[in-house]
Write the C-alpha cells for this entry.
Amino acid sequence: MSKNSEDFVNSIQNYYDIALQLVMKCGPSVRDGYSSKQADYEQKSSFYDLVTKYDKEIEDMLVAGLQKAFPESKFIGEESVAATGQLPELTDAPTWIIDPIDGTTNFIHRIPHWCISVGLSINKELVVGIVYNPIANEMYSARKGHGAYLNGQRIHVRNCTAMNDAVLAYEISLIHSIRVRDKNVKRLSKLGAHSAGIRCIGSAALTLCYVARGNFDCYHVEDLQAWDIAGAAVILREAGGVLCHTKGDEFQIMKPNLVAAATPELAKIMIGLIEEADAITDFTFK
Ligand code: 2AM
Ligand code: CA
C-alpha cells in the first residue's frame, strides 16, 4: 500500500471510531426522552413532517463533537437544513450527513423503530456509515472496504434472487403527498403483488439495515433526502447488497431515489417491475 493510501485508510478509521463513540454517547438522553412520555413535537413543512426537541439536541451534539474532532468537516443535517431552508451542495470535503432521528413519527408514538443515522462522504463518495437504534440496542456500522457490522458481528444480505422469495420493504407514508401518490400506489401494487411479503417500518435507514442483515430482501423509495439514506447506504453495500438509482443508473446520494436489493438479480427484477408500473396510464387514485 502506498503511503498516501495508507494515510487515507487510517484517517477513515479515525473518522469512524470517533463518530461511533459520539453516536453511542447520544443514546442515554434520547432513550430517556423516548421512554418518559410521548415526546412533545412541532410540525415542520406539513402535518406529517414532525420534529421533537431531541432531533435538534442530537444533531447539535453530533455536529459539535465532530466539528471539534475534525475541524475540516462540513455538515448536511436534517434539522439545520430545516432551520435555514438551504440544502448545502455536496463537495469533495469530508461531509457528515446526519439524520438525528430517522423515524421521528415512530419516536413520538413510541414505536421502537427509529435510529440515529450518520454517513461520511469524502470526495463525494460515502465511506463511513453508522446507524444506531438505542431502544433495540442495535449499532450498525461500516467503513468502505471493511464489511458491515451489527454490534461488532459481521452482517450479510440474504442470497435472494427471486421476487416471489423476497420480503419487500416499501415506504407507504409517502402517499401523503398528492404529487407522488399515484406513482407510489402503482409501484407498491406491482412490486407487492410479486413479492413473498411486504413490510413498512417507518425509518428508511433502519429498513436498509434490515436488508443488510438479511431480514428484508429489497426496498424501493424515492423523494427522500440524503440524510435518510447516507449512513445505511454504506452499511448495505458493505453487507454485499446492491444500491442503485430506480432506473438502474448509479446511485446519487443527493437525490437518493433508489432500488436496494440483496442481489443484482433481484435489483434487475425490481427495476423492470417499476418500469411496468410507471407505464400504467389508466389509473388515478387522487
Ligand atoms: P424522518 O423520520 O427523518 O422524517 C418513513 O416515514 C421514512 O420516510 C423515514 O425515514 C422518514 O424520515 C422519511 N420521510 C422523509 N420525509 C417524509 C415525509 N414527508 N413523510 C413521511 N416520511 C418521510
Ligand atoms: Ca429525521
